[in-house]
Fold each of these.
Amino acid sequence: MARTCRPTLSTFTLAIRPSIPAPSQTPAAGNAAVEGRRFASVKSQGAYKIPNKKTLPKKLGAKKSGDQYVVPGNIIFKQRGTMWHPGENALKGRDHTIHAAVAGYVKYYRDPQLHPNRQYIGVAFNREDTLPYPKDEPRRRKLGMVAHTRKVNEKKDNISASGIPRRVVRKGGLYDVETLEQELWSRDKARELAEARQAAGKEAATPAETAAAESAAAAGEVETTPITDAESGESNPGKKRTRAEQREFVHPLAFIQKRWLERRRTRTLHLNPRNYSYSESNAAIGRLASRTMYTAPWKLGGRKARLRSRRKRTEESFKQIAANRELVKQEKEKERIAEEAKRARMLAKQRAKGQGRAKEAKEAKEAKEAKEGEKAADEPAAEEKKVDA
């Protein structure tokens, strides 16, 4: 051995690696030699290009430069992580993308008062503006509104070029309906009572005038408003009645009809001073158009009444149809029962007739058998007589 005590290779026996036979150059032989070989399902067009992670791809970065005009929704800057923060009139998406919130011009800036190190992207309304806007100045337009000059309303004449007033206002404000009704009632009742007295004073009065006088007198007895100066045709409202007494107040049909006719004769147009619209009811609007679709209060049967009567007639017709069907059904049932009874009687008659025929045949058969028996009994006696002879 040497001094280095290094062993020589000849003293060790190394394991010999088994030799692997080389596959055949032909494809068939190679496939046979190597079992379970996989093939690519898609034809390879070349090696894949691995992108460089250290550089930014083209899809990231600034999409809008400074002082460039944008509209709401435009992408200003795309980034991975928040390098730029949304400032005035800007929004940040889920992937840290900065969007424009209003229409304006892009501004890249810093705001030390908001944060000392952050950089912001905002949108200014005017190109010459600088961001951030001072906090103490009046607030600029927000909410996506567009600046425009305020329109000045020109004063118009009260009467239009066609001669129609632009605005009609009632004098003295709204009418006191209760007071007007009381005054009209008193005046009309005074006139009616005067006419009734004059008609009653006549010696030769017609039946129609007598009936009118009686109706007016009867109406005067139930009125609640006292009448004064009836002889002269003037009336003044008297003492107010209680609610219990007012419930006894009954509007005669003739008075309601007269009031309605007086309203129909009017052609007064009442307009709302605020929006120049009608302030009357639908009946009044139809009256102004010379054709009303509203049923007068004195006329029996309004629109709802007509609808109810029509519905009632329809229901009655349906009930009549159902009753007719039930009657026809009962008649058919009676006919069926009568037919079954007739058939049963016929079958019974046929059965009885068949039983009678069978009985007659049986009796005839028995008689025939008896006759044959008697004949058979007489034959031996006749033979004996022949032998004796």
Note: Helices lie at 27-33, 177-201, 207-222, 243-246, 253-265, 282-288, 303-388.
Amino acid sequence: MTIAEQIAGKLNAKLNYIPKTAQEEEEEKEEPKKTTFRKYEEELEINDFPQTARWKVTSKENLANIQEYSDAGVTIRGTYFPQGKEPKEDEGERKLYLSIESTSELSVQKAKAEITRLIKEELIRLQNSYQPINKGRYKVL
């Protein structure tokens, strides 16, 4: 036994380390390592918001920014249905919504927060820029 082996043996004894046998190492290599991935999803319905708010959130540029910022995938799903018209559930139709997916819950929350911020920002802008439309062309004096 060499000096290095003696020192390693003393160190192993102090640490209560039991070295693995060659057979145990082979068995470990044969067993595939099981890694589990969790997938977090959330859906945010945008069908009933004004058209400009929907456009703001679903524009390519804003979707790319949201995905880059939050590290979550955002997909536009469903079909737009005007107010008062409902989708046919039996045919699998759904109102327009955003599907947010990621491997971490924090990413989903960040994406949802950014989307709601953009929608609120656009709604406030619309509310402040409201100008009544003139009903008639002429004024009666």
Note: The first strand starts at residue 40 and ends at 45.
